[in-house]
Amino acid sequence: MTTYYYVLASQKFLLEEEPFEEVLKERTRNYQEQNKEIDFWLVKQPAFLETPEFAQIKAKCPQPAVAVISTNPQFITWLKLRLEYVITGEFQSPSDSIPSPLASLTSV
């Protein structure tokens, strides 16, 4: 199992109100320059929110939701400090109730 860390917000906030696309582009460019493997993904309507253990988190986040998921906890902490109206947390996957968050997505 892998530990994934996330920043969760409404799609409207993260993709329309914040200049977030530039943050992801800059981070991607930086990783490429350092020949570092991408360890973060932008996921619309993340599947982990549909599990019973995340019902309270889902209720707190305006829908539709979007998450940045990463295996790097420092990156998620940095995003939390940069953004205001977000929820952060972590989960283990794959598990009995949470499929891999990377199974059906494309890279940032």
UniProtKB/TrEMBL annotation:
What Gene3D superfamilies does this protein's entry cite? Uncharacterised protein family Ycf54
- Transmembrane ranges, per UniProt, are none
What PANTHER family does the record point to?
Answer: PTHR35319, YCF54 (PTHR35319:SF2)
User: Record's family?
Assistant: Belongs to the ycf54 family.
* Protein name stated in the entry: DUF2488 domain-containing protein
Source organism: Aphanothece hegewaldii CCALA 016
- Taxonomy of the source species: Bacteria, Bacillati, Cyanobacteriota, Cyanophyceae, Oscillatoriophycideae
